[in-house]
Amino acid sequence: MARYPAVDQLLGEAAEQTGLSDFGPGDFRDGLAVLLESLEHDGDLSPDADAAVLGDFRRRLVNRLQVEAWYAEHPEVDDVSVRGPVDIHGLPRTGTTALADMLSLDPQFRCLRGWEQGRPVPPPTRGNEADDPRRLEFIAAQERRSPDHRAMHIVEVDATMEDTDLLGMAFHGQQMMLPTPGYRDWWREADLTSTYQYHRRVVKLLGSRRPPDLWLFKAPHHKFHLDGLAAAYPDIRFVMTHRDPAKVVPSYTSLVSSIMPPADGERDLHGLGREICDHLRVGMEHAIEARRRIGEDRFLDVHHRDLVSDPKGTIQRIYAWLGFDLTPAVEQTILDWQQANRMGAAGAHRYTAEQFGLSAAQIRSDYDFYIRHFDVTLEG
């Protein structure tokens, strides 16, 4: 007997819960089927985690139904303007979050916030955001994070965040919080053209009552499917961050291992380390190839060392490249944030490559093409 339900069962439950039947466009059923199959055959989850995992799937299906119902009642949403966006991506743990948090302080950007992604309907309105129950729930959840998690990863409630839930609603997200290597094998090579068209559909809804319309995105996983993202957002421009992969890979593996639900027994951390090392390498290979097709003029490279050692100069260079105004007040706000949140300010994130079956030499050998291509500085 299968441990996890079939696709049709989950769709039926979401439809029954809402009284709605239109799940909207795209090939989300394919992704959901592969994800369920991978959980069944690859996963090491404790049975105690099943209810929460399946609850997330149902929530995202309910979100899809509610998005289509909202469009049916408010067809004018389809005409909402989406300018930009500016997209920050790269290998994880290279400064994507810090840079996104800094740019999110500029009110000319519309940020894709975590709290509105989890339940996009109804779309937020500026005057009511402070008391929006979704935002208050998000704040409460962040306050429950452990000191170790705070040291690993900064979370700003109103900054732009990874589009995990938007891609999750299409069931074409990376799913790094689940032990599903088979799904990720499929996802890396999947065509996300329709996924990002759906992504734009939800972004328009979220922006329909909350200007401005110049969007700021941030997601390291965008590097896997830049062509699909550029097709959905033809005016998009990319800021790509870089850092020594010998620092990146074990740090990210440590983060992922800490946020995955409990395993049924002992999780194979060496296997997880190998998977993540290979996974991120393939993503960078995809990104380099896609940049050639999209056009290098639409990409700005930012190195972690520069963001840390010269935040003011780095921010000024980004704004000059974008052709956007950087007011003195916004610049000072950004620099104040950077000083308050400099590396180590929330505590030390402790890990080693060896605890995940990796070594600095092996990682740098695997990523030699990346180090040479972008002239990445190696760290001691």
From TrEMBL:
A Pfam family matched in the record: Sulfotransfer_3
InterPro entries in the cross-refs: P-loop_NTPase, Stf3_sulfotransferase
Listed Gene3D superfamilies: P-loop containing nucleotide triphosphate hydrolases (3.40.50.300)
SUPFAM superfamilies reported in the protein's UniProt record: P-loop containing nucleoside triphosphate hydrolases
Highest taxon listed in the record's lineage: Bacteria
Listed name of the protein: Sulfotransferase
Organism from which the protein derives: Frankia nepalensis
